[in-house]
Amino acid sequence: MSVHEDSEEYHANYDDNKNDKKHDKIFKTLLQDKNEMAKFLNHFIGLNINPNDLELQNPNFITKTYKYNQADILYKLKDRNVYYLIEQQTCVDYSMAYRILNYCVETIRLAIKDENINNKFYKFPKIIPIVIYIGNNKWTASTSFSDCEVEYPDLNFNSLETKFKLIDINNFEIEALLMLKTMIANTMILEKSKNNDEVIENLKKITNNFTDKKSEMKELKRIVSYLYEGMKNIKEILNLIKESEDDENMSTVAERLKEEYKNERLIGISQGISQGISQGIAQGISQIVKNMLNSGMLDSDILYYTKIDKKQLDKIKKEFENESK
After folding, report:
1. Is residue 129 included in any domain, yes or no?
2. How far is it, in rounded angstroms, from Cα 159 to Cα 236?
3. How many domains are there within the chain?
4. pTM for the complete prediction?
């Protein structure tokens, strides 16, 4: 697996403001592999495509007018005027139906070029738009442009009926994704992980499910190093994946790592609370609680370690939920 844009590799710096771009990049990179793309289309769209029948198009195929909103991936079916347009989203975008409409129109415009379309036998290219959504909240935006138009009851048909196929990872259970045995599915599983413990547990499930252990471990290591570079103990995670590649049981590796995280988290919580209280900084305590919520800790544990009351916790939880939307 390689990244084709500016020869970039999996070494992006960890920055909350760049996380979405990192997630976009990993899916875009995986889908540039024809084998992965064929498996993706065959399972999620219900097709039966041979990888050799797919032709990856230049990303600049989409009009420069929308260069800041380009679709991530565009494939053409060999010897046929059929295109698969893939867009990946980390958050709900209520303009997506409009964006997809633009992508489809521009793809058709550039595909027909100078062809003679003014005859009754000409058939325009078919564009199949697909949106992969990996956000934590359920997708709530419309998948059809006609739903976004103003209502006009006197008209008994939709003037513009452009739809896209939505692949929402929230609709798939981890066990179902494991059955696919593809790197796209494995990446979706990691995206569904809400905290460090879940990342470790899901890594165990993924590696135990490998059939070609050596090559798949190599790909997994690159994905993990890219997605979680800013995660504490990332070097230990990568080393332990390497150990499991050398035939150590991944379950043992995962248990060791979970114990390290548990101890480190409790120590960090204790130190953070002591420092925050000693400085008398309410904002510091609030952030500590939000970090604990983000790591999936129970309310009872948060109240025990922070010594705040239930009313304070409820207030911080409300702030955390609003920030997470």
Report:
1. yes
2. 56
3. 1
4. 0.67
